[in-house]
Amino acid sequence: MRRSRLAWWLLSSMVVVGAAPVARAEEALPASVAEVLRSADAFAVVSIDPKVHRPWGYGKEAEGGRPLERWLEAVAGAEGVYGRVEVAAAERAEIVKALEAGRAAEGPVAGCYDPRHAIVARKGDVTVAIHLCFACHYAVILEAGTAKGSLEAFQDVGGLKARLDGLLRAGKVALAEDVEKEERAAAERGKGPQLSAPMELFGLSEPDTMEVYALDPAEYDDFGYGGPKVEGTPYAAAMERLASGRGVKAKATVTRASARKALSDQLYRGYARGGDPAKCFNPRHALVLKTAAKQAVFFLCFECSYATAIGPKTEGGRNLVTFSDPGHLQAKLDLILSAATTATK
User: Fold this and answer.
1) Residue 341 burial (C-beta neighbours within 10 Å; 0-12, 13-18, 19+)
2) Do both 172 and 205 map to the same domain?
3) Per-residue pLDDT of the chain (345 residues; tens, 9 = 90+)
4) Are residues 233 and 291 in the same domain?
5) Would you say 142 and 171 are in contact if contact means Cβ atoms under 8 Å apart?
6) Range of the domain at 307
7) Are 86 and 221 in a shared domain?
């Protein structure tokens, strides 16, 4: 049963008492979507930030069509994504069964739409995606021919949320609800930004370009301790080494401006929050941010909570700064690098 946006708003301000599920088979999953889900070559569960992915339920990311393509671009850029896990064939059947039962069941809905889970499946060159909000009982289904994301009523009659949460936790992927609890707890403790981010980061909140690197730490640890001692600046040396491919395991370019801004914001928050440092410096990730007027490279060690920021005017000398990962930045960078590596194979 479809409802108007006014009805969603009204329902969101009321206490809704659930009723026994009523079959409505005509509103189950589209046959084309169900076929891909049942016989997929790849099938993943994704943990997503509802603040970022909410617009797909209202068509706001579908201007000009292609909402599925736009969503996949956002996921490839780890925009509002905490992580993903691949699902084995045996588990897929139970998930599909629960999805179909949820779409075929009548029950209460609310007006929020805060999706914290998504399922994406690919069969050959055909991909489908389903976003789920277990708070308001709405789902959004996207396939290649979808012109605009729309809300579809959905009930969790098969324990699907618990199943998806279990898969994500087993894969050591953060759940959106856990991240939100962490953020609320930090706010209650009064831990806001400490304005301790390095000067190289200021002016790069909306970079024009962003490159992500996966590194051999043994090739880049010297940048945290004032080296290498060569002619020119440490920045020039770092960029030359990255460009040569020395110690570079993978590289990706973040193309979406919104994804670049989100990652830059997380980088700032990581510096501003500080960390509980160890004594290593094994940078396995690097970020290169540039605007027309500013540029810098950041080497990050998520093991010891240290990072180093190097700009064109940075001089030698130890410049390690404490760094934490409150926004699961490491997982997002790994997702971006994984997507880029897969695309080139």
Assistant:
1) middle
2) no
3) 333 332 332 223 223 333 333 344 445 789 999 999 999 999 999 999 998 899 998 887 766 778 999 899 888 888 889 889 999 988 999 999 999 999 988 888 887 899 999 999 999 999 999 999 999 999 999 999 888 888 999 999 879 999 999 999 999 898 999 888 877 776 665 444 444 678 888 889 899 999 999 999 999 988 887 655 556 678 988 999 999 999 999 999 999 998 999 899 888 888 877 777 777 889 999 999 999 989 999 999 988 888 889 998 887 655 678 888 866 889 899 999 988 876 666
4) yes
5) no
6) 199-344
7) no
Q: Which helix (H) or strand (E) holds 310?
A: strand 306-310
Residue 188 placed within a domain = no
User: What is the DSSP annotation of 193-254?
Assistant: --S-S-GGGTT-SS-SEEEEEEE-HHHHGGGGBT----SS-HHHHHHHHHHHTTTEEEEEE-
| Residue type for position 237 | A
Structural domain count, the chain: 2
Segment holding 6, helix H or strand E: helix 5-12
Q: What is the pTM of this model?
A: 0.70
